[in-house]
User: Fold this.
Amino acid sequence: MKIGLYFGSFNPIHIGHLAIANFMAEYTDLEEIWFIVSPHNPLKNKASLLADYHRFELVKLSIEAYPQFKASNIEFGLPQPSFTIDTLSYLREKHDKHQFALIVGSDNLNSFTKWKNYELLLQNHELYVYPRPGFKDEDINLPGTIHIVPAPLMEVSSSFIRQAIKEKKEIPFFLPSPAYQYIKDMHFYEK
Assistant:
């Protein structure tokens, strides 16, 4: 089975994440999309993250109605900070019948050469890239099999969600309903 790995902090997961995953599942050859909740992205500040298990729970609640989507906390048990190459090695060992591809936003391409063993990632895994505003195909100077997926542009971000909640804005349409309710019940991002 060909599986698209969608790594992220998902701090919190929002409708943009789900729309992109839905597009990848319906308009590419990816058979499943696994949301890999990252405990610590080495290129981001960990202090601003909601606890790992809460972010994982938000993802699980948000995707439970979609059989092509799976939530994974696999990185919680791996050494931190999390490196994509290490997670992929572990997944290939545990699921040797699956083929894994990476789903990334075009903004990640600018820093891709900073990823640990990025050359091996590009040699051994396809990249499915969804465009961000201002992205042009000619901006790619990486080798390997890279698919630019013409998904609709999504400008909603987790930082926008966190800021809106802090400002006491009602934003139920920016998050999946179960995640929105969980965040409200737990009073997350209010400070």
Q: What stands out?
A: The longest strand covers residues 2-8. The mean pLDDT is 91.
